[in-house]
Amino acid sequence: MDALKEKEPMFSAKNMGLIKSPIIKDNPITVQVLGICSALAVTVKLEPAIVMAIAVTVVTAFSNLVMSFIRNITPSRIRIIVMLTVIAFMVIMVDQVLKAFLYDVSRQLSVFVGLIITNCILMGRLEAFAISNKPWPSFLDGIGNGLGYSWILVAVALVREVLGSGTFFGIKLFDTPWWNLYELGYKDNGLMILPPMALILVGVVIWVQRSRHRELIEKN
Amino acid sequence: MAKSFSNQYIFTFAFVMVVIVATGLSLGFSVLKPYQDENRRIEKIQYILKAAGIPSEKKEATRVYSDHLIAEWILDPVTGEPVSVYQSDGTYLKGDRRAFDIDMKKLLAARKAFNEGKSKDNPGIPLFVMRSDKGDTLYVIPVWGRGLWGPVWGNIAFGTDRNSITGATFDHQGETPGLGAEINKDFFSDQFKGKKLMGPDDTFQSVKVIKGGVKNLPAEKQPYNVDGISGGTITSDGVSNMLLDCIRYYEPFMKKAR
Q1: SS3 (DSSP) at B226
Q2: Is B20 on the interface with A (CB under 8 A)?
Q3: Which of B10, B21, B177 minimises the CB distance to A85?
Q4: Residues of A in contact with B36 (CB under 8 A)
């Protein structure tokens, strides 16, 4: 039987499901409600949000992969410490690479790259999936959860940057050579820049999502 | 998961894992360090240039810097005289140290030790003499202090009257985004343009970051205050203290203009 399983195609329906399900149905932020701390912190502007999203996706995928490779030789009594070491190693490497090659973005993200270590999505996926699954599905699961986290982050950042700062990737939207809404009395919404608004926006995403996927609504 | 491991195995596993991870990290760090140091050096150059009002692209920052640099001085804070002068052509007129290489954090600790009589070593303070795009001579001094969560630093540029600020830049390591972190934005640093460091009686005044609006102050106090950032009070106070603590060492140098 094992031999048959090995021949499962790399992008089989089951494997693709691992990528797709965390994007909507099992989204780490809106359904599992993991990792929302950083979702509040780095979503004021789009650029840091996108870099953060990539960083989290890379770290989740590769720590899942590494953990899955060593799952059979890891003593279960110290598995949490092993997971933390693997995650911390990945995060420090990502941080150092950003400092070397994307210095400006790394300055913007400041402490939040380091805080990926404490992002619950990582530990959650390692403990829930990678510890008991083969490397390739674990890797895909990591990518899927990273993407699920990413799109929420980018969506929230888009709303916050456009309404809060009136810019899109730093380009001014309402104060251009052709039109100037500020002269007509438009004002940027300062509340958008503050962390509570990110929480409210995540709440709105959860609301919309549950009204479209009614099976997500808790019964009691 | 039913497999059980002996204590010896667990310890060996943990030990091997730590050695592998430590080796990996040190390797990665030593490979990337030259790139990171270069980024920090260029950032420092760009901040000095920006304080002096000279725009620069990251790629050509080093060239722009040597074009606009007249000299890097290291001053004796007691006499206000230079003890080391490095010129942009790479030669030393006096001494053998570059102001650019001074670590402000270490310098401030050393100065504190000297002032308290704990050390006899009188460390020199850095000063950059720059030529602005208009051809004016400007002095730029680096400042370093503590914000709410970590260090804050910056550069203050002033003219040959050794009093009027012509530009400033600030940055921080990890101040609260949207609040204290705003000190590195232009709207904050632009407020320093035209402010004064010395009072009418020729004593050192510094510039304070205050609450409540500079425009509500009496006219004679306005040149010594700028508006703080709402919600960033501790960072604003950190900037005030930083300016006071660092620039006061330049008082003898400032007085020489008169």
Answers
A1: strand
A2: no
A3: B21
A4: 96, 99-100, 103
Who among A74, A99, A110 is closest to B36 (CB)? A99
Chain A, chain B: beta-carbon pairs less than 8 Å apart = 60
Residue B20 has pLDDT above 90, yes or no: yes
Digit-coded pLDDT (tens) for B35-44: 999 998 999 9
Read off the pLDDT band of B3 (50, 70, 90): low
When pLDDT is averaged across residues B157-167 and rounded to a whole number, the result is 90
A210: its two tokens: 């549950």
Residue of B8, B11, B13 best to disrupt the A interface, most CBs of A under 10 A: B13
Instruction: Name the pTM for this structure.
Output: 0.75
Q: Tokens 């002996």 belong to which residue?
A: B6
Q: Which of B168, B199, B188 is nearest to B228 (CA)?
A: B188
Whether B174 has its CB under 8 Å from any CB of chain A: the answer is yes
Q: Which of A85, A96, A107 sits opposite B32 (nearest CB)?
A: A96
- Predicted ipTM > 0.90: no
What sign has the CA pseudo-torsion A112, B105, B73, B192?
positive
Burial A93-106 (b: 16+ CB within 10 A, else e): bbbbbbbbeebebb
User: What phi and psi, each to the nearest 5 degrees, are found at residue A3?
Assistant: -60, -40
**Which 3 state secondary structure label does DSSP give A73?**
coil
Long-range pairs of A13-17 with CB within 8 A, sequence gap ≥ 24: A14/A137, A15/A136, A15/A137, A15/A140, A16/A140
Backbone angles phi, psi at B220, to 5 degrees: -70, -15
Q: Chain A contacts of B171, Cβ < 8 Å?
A: 107
pLDDT tens digits along A5-35: 555 677 777 888 888 888 877 788 878 777 7
With cut-offs at 50, 70 and 90, classify the pLDDT of residue A4: very low
Query: What value does the mean pLDDT take over residues A186-204?
Result: 86
Of B189 and B212, more confident: B189
State whether A97 and B32 contact (CB < 8 Å). Answer: yes
Interface contact B174-A110, CB threshold 8 A: yes
Summarised one tens digit per residue, pLDDT across range B54-69 is: 888 888 888 888 888 8
